[in-house]
């Protein structure tokens, strides 16, 4: 039996509305998508237009972000969610289900009914739910997102210890101004989830946290924290998710592997930029029987990659990039049965990949392969097309790679991102790239590409969102009909960008393009948010219509002595000819003052019950605070996607 339940309240905890509904039989993905759709609908129709949605399914988040390809049976619901997102600002992030006790209770109520139940006041909430409204979560992270003045600071009152049944404590993204983490937090015995990331704490992490024997998730990401040792973690038998990124672990460097190897319940381990310098070359046995995510980016390991890592058969994502690993990449990585993401980029070009061994494995589920800044001996072999599950391939600035790009890459029908920066082709842009129909990101910077942009070929990449062709030797014109053409314009020329309606980033800087004008129809690229046309031979008036009005940085046009008009200071002559009719935008401008801020939490419960938890904070604040909030999530989105 699948069901959903949800609640929406303002920043003071006052209930705005709640709902529950049963669905009958359904898969967890389909029901969670349906709950997302219905929850958005309920809130948007009530005027809550700026929304943060927290889901427990990372796969659903990937679907919504376009980072994973969904089954055809889910595309209808996804399209409905996309349509609802047009009414406001919607962000998605991940949360663990155990933190949503109130949503659990609402979902259980929904499982007993096949009809929608709406509750509009606290007194009408079922008794078993009402008491959870203010006690289910203690989380104060939201304040610091808007303005430092709203961040929590000062001293944490030990009275917090009196919350004997507290299971979820989130103090992240606040400003405790260098205060130490209170020892008494280790006495809140019922805690399942503790998040102190980027909260302004500093000093040594107290070993008393090892007393939280029921802890499932621990997040301590902060560059101001350090640890003398990590042995206290061995007292946390239920720990599944550990994130200590940025924490200074240099004093614990020698034995951290052995500590983690005593935590068989770990599912995710993130130790990004922790100052670790040693990784055990051997282990008597591998006890990481549940580990799915291992993130060791940007540490100081100066050794070969240990072979025992290739024995963690449960691994889904492995990131060893930007360390000082050297020697051969273990070819046994290809035998990991569940591996979907492999990140091995090096900082010193000492990491070597033997293609003949590396590609001989099964690679049954691999989606992301990142080998940038590595030594790749020989050309890219045709056998690479055997990794048919591949969605992202990055070989940028790799040493010793020779030969042309094999056309066999076009058999990677799921490929969405291709990065080959620094691959010196000394040739024109390959005319077969248009066959990569799923491609969303193509980066060919500094590839010594020559000749014109093949409009008729690349124009077939209708899903393309980001195109980087910087620092090449491309010449000719920017295609005259840039952006979607009207029926009257299509007879002028076939354009590279005629079908690229989804393009968000376009980099053509540092080439020798000779177009006399920037096509006015470029403004039809309504999703365009990043543009660089600097250091070419462009001239004429810079178009200002529609989306181009938002690109106000003059540096994106510098190095083109013939350009004039805003945002440059050079004015155009009054007799300059027009570049054509201004495209008419179909967008409806939303009044920024209508936006509110809402937080929504989704989780997946037992029996495929979907819980919908919403916190709708209605903020009548000045414009600068809202801008700070939106900028924060824009930066987070750029890092994640």
Features:
16-stranded parallel β-sheet, globular, alpha/beta, disordered C terminus, 641 residues, seven-stranded mixed β-sheet, 13% helix, 33 strands, Nucleotidyltransferase, domain 5
Outline the structure in words.
The protein has 641 residues and is an alpha/beta fold. The protein has a domain at 2-139 and 595-640: Nucleotidyltransferase, domain 5 (2-Layer Sandwich). The protein contains ten helices and 33 strands. The strands form six sheets. Strands 6-7-8-10-12-13-14-15-17-19-21-22-23-25-27-29 form a 16-stranded parallel β-sheet, with no helix packed on it. A seven-stranded mixed β-sheet has the order 4-3-32-33-1-2-5. It is globular and about 70 Å long. Mean pLDDT is 76; it is low at 134-150, 480-495 and 575-641.
Q: What is the structure about, briefly put?
A:
The protein is an alpha/beta fold and 641 residues long. Helix content is 13%, strand content 20%. It has a domain of 184 residues: Ribonuclease H-like superfamily/Ribonuclease H (Nucleotidyltransferase, domain 5, 2-Layer Sandwich).
